[in-house]
Amino acid sequence: MPHTIVTNTCEGVADCVDACPVACIHEGPGKNAKGTGWYWIDFSTCIDCGICLQVCPVEGAILPEERPELQKTP
To answer: Which residues form the 4Fe-4S ferredoxin-type domain (predicted)?
Structure first.
């Protein structure tokens, strides 16, 4: 099951982008509710490795399950 980046919790740090072995994390357009940049996970590409969870410094920004209602996907 793919992971989810919670759009309104993400702070755009992007440590997850470089760490992802399958390049499934992409920058979202504009700002989120916090006024920061944000990223999203392509559920069809994610291999559920969990590396993004390990490297993200923002508590609760990435969830270990697919929750499309919490992640804005362009």
So the answer is: 1-30, 37-67
